Amino acid sequence: MFTAASRFEQFPALAHTTYLNTAAESIPPLCVEEAVHEYLRDKTLGMRGRDGHFAQVEKCRAVCARLLSLTPAEVSFCSCSSEAYNLLASALQLRDRDEVVVTDIDFPAGITPWMRAASPPSLKIWKANQGELLLEELSSILGPTTKLVQVSLVSFYSGHRIAWEPFHQMVRALAPNAVIAVDITQAFGRIPILCHNADILISSTHKWTLGIHGGCVIGVPAAAAERLTTTAGGWYHLLNAFDPDRLERAVSKKGAASFSVGMPNFISLYALGASLSYLESIGIENIGAHANPLIKEVDDGLRRLGLTPLCEWRPDNPTGIVAFKHEQNATLHAALDAEQIHVMHQAGRIRIAVHGYNSQEDVSRLLSVLESLRSEGVFF
Predict the structure, then answer these.
(1) How many other CB atoms are there within 10 angstroms of residue 12's CB atom?
(2) 44-62: pLDDT as tens digits
(3) Phi/psi at 245 (5° precision)
(4) Which fold has domain 4-28+283-375?
(5) 357: which residues sit within 8 A by CB, 6+ positions away?
(6) How many angstroms separate the Cα of 56 from the Cα of each of 49, 59, 273?
(7) Contact of 31 with 49, CB cutoff 8 Å
(8) I need a surface site. Which of 167, 197, 292, 306 has the fewest CB within 10 A?
(9) What is the pLDDT of residues 16-44, one digit of tens each?
(10) Domain ranges of the chain
(11) How far apart, in whole angstroms, are the C-alpha atoms of residue 27 and residue 342?
C-alpha cells in the first residue's frame, strides 16, 4: 500500500490518476474484487451457497469487532447508515418532550430521522466554531432531558475530529440519560477507533474501509443492548420468526443484532470482510504513519497558497480530511478534472482526502496545480 509496486498491484486504477476523494468513494483493493467473485461463485450453488454466505458474514463480523474493540456479539450489519439511524429512532421512540443534540457539521443521515419523527423531539444544535466543535459550547445544551447526543467522530464537512474522551466524560456527567451515538464513517479504516464506550457506533462501508455500497456496520456494546433494541418489523432479527407463536408476538434479538432486520446483503459483507482484513494486515497505525504527514503537507500547502482550511488539522488528533471554501468556480473544477485530480467539489467547498494508498507524488501534484491556478487568478 505504501510503495509504488504494492500500490499499483492492489490498486491498478491509481496508475493514471491523482485520487484524493476517499471521503466520498474509495478505490477498493483487488482482494475486494476477488471477494465479489467468490460471492458470485457461492451464489451459483443456490441454497447450498448459503453455507459460504453465512461463513463470510461471521468472518466480517469478527474483523469488525477486532478493529472496533468490541465482541462479535456486539457487531451487526444493515444496508446503509440512513437505515441504521432510522432503526435507532425506532429503538428510542423519542417524543416531543425529549431533547436531541446534533451538530451542524454532521451528515444528514444522523440528523434527519429526528426531524421526520411522528412526534419530533426538540433538536438542539451544537454549532461548529471555525469548523470545530468546542466542548464549552456543548455544556450549555446538555441536561437531564437530553436523550440522544449524535456526533460524527470525524466530520464529513470540515474534517474536524472530536476529542473523544473529554466529550464522552462531559455527556455522561451532564446528560446521564442520553444515548451517545457516533458516526465513524469518516474514520473507520483510516484512524484507530477508540470510541467503543459510545452506546452505538455506525459506519458506511464504501469509504475508508475500502468496501462497496450496500453495507453498514453497527456496534452496540452489551451494556446498551437492552435500551438499543429496535422495534422494526422484519424476520432475520427475530428470535421467533418461524415459531408457532409468530402470529401472536414478535420477539427481537437484543442490541446490535436487532439492526439486521432482513437477509444480509451478502455481497457487501464479502467485500467488507476482505477489505478490512487487508487493512488489518497493514495496520491502521501504519496507515496513519504514512498518510498523516501527507495530509499535513496538504494543509500546510493550502495555507501557503492563501487558502484557509475549514478547521485546524491537529497532529495529536489526526484525520484524513482537509477542506476549504472558495467561490463557486467552474474553471477551477474543470482545471482539476482536466488534470485527473479527483477531489470533492460541493457548494463552494473543496474537500481533500488522503488514505494509505496515496503518495507523495499525489500531494505534490495537487499543490503544484493549485499553485498554477492561483497564479492565473482562477480562485481569487
Answers:
(1) 12
(2) 999 999 999 999 999 999 9
(3) -95, 15
(4) Aspartate Aminotransferase, domain 1 (3.90.1150)
(5) 1, 7, 10, 11, 14, 19, 27
(6) 11, 5, 7
(7) no
(8) 306
(9) 899 999 999 999 999 999 999 999 999 99
(10) 4-28+283-375, 31-280
(11) 12
